[in-house]
Amino acid sequence: MTAYKKTLKIDPILNAAWLYYQEGMNQSDVADKMNVSRLTINKYLLQARERGIIKIELNFDDYLNDYSAINIKNKFKLNNVLIVPDVHSSIMPSKEFRQHMANAGAAYLSDIIEDNDFLGVAWGRTIHMLGNYIAPKRLNNVNVIQMLGSILPQPDFTTIESSTKIAQKLSAKCVSLHVPAIVSNPQLATELMSEPVIQHSFSLLEKCNKALIVVGNTQDSNPLISSGVLSKKEMEIFRDLGAVGVLCGRFYDINGQAIKYENVDNRLLGISLEKLQKIETKIFLSAGPSNFDALIGAIKGNFITDLIIDEDTAKLLINYSL
Length: 322
Hints:
Pfam families: Sugar-bind
Family: Belongs to the SorC transcriptional regulatory family.
CATH architecture of the largest domain: 3-Layer(aba) Sandwich
Strand content: 5-15%
Keywords: DNA-binding, Transcription, Transcription regulation
Domain Sugar-binding: 72-319
Organism: Testudinibacter aquarius
Number of helices: 16
Helix content: 40-55%
Number of domains: 2
CATH class of the largest domain: Alpha Beta
Order of helices and strands: HHHHHEHEHEHEHHEHHEEEHHEHEH
Largest sheet: 7 strands, parallel
Radius of gyration: 22 Å
Distance between the termini: 87 Å
Oligomer: single chain
Number of strands: 10
Structural class: alpha/beta
Mean pLDDT: 91
């Protein structure tokens, strides 16, 4: 009778993480030792962070107390400003700088989220990426709440996943609104809002003490158009009315004042700008000169308390005349 020996198998992600972080080997040496490519090791280390095997913690106090960050914070009366080092939206491909901003946003959110928080979350490409970068964290009694109704799945994000990914990483309960972002007529919007289940979901938005938002401009490249929430003609109307930015489907001008267009506003199902203003901590990600007017309007409208920006945007803010 032949006796078979059992072989020892160790998860290669665990192996790579141990050799790189614990043994101090560089990626090339780890690749040689494991007999795989350096690119494979890079992927293993990224997966180790996503799974929470590796937790890298920065001392955000040092970044928030940087001279330029303090300058911008005081100038615009914000709570905190984080300038993401070596990220230049003016010269980087959009997907690349979006990844860097999402990574920074994930680290900052993980640093400030606490037990019992109610976190309102917008949806979009950057928020969707951000959910991938958050390191798993054990929290108690945290709720993550979608702040605008849903749309059909897009090539690079889905509305449900944008909030559920974040909730899963934070051991939180995810509350989806279970309504479209926009409906065909105001009467239908009113009827949906009268449903008890939907009323309950929207009532939780009133409890939000933190919000996660990404800047939105009024260009035709805005996902609100590609997702079918708005037509190009409707976006043009908002621009003609003076809109420079949009948050959760709600438009505002350069002074942060709401821009109303009843044919759209009365059909939208999501948080209002007035309710958004009342949220205590509003984490806002912004990068790129094309989003600068939207950023200024959001600052003036009190839609931001904690700002995360790239170096190019930081320079624009430092030189902006109030």
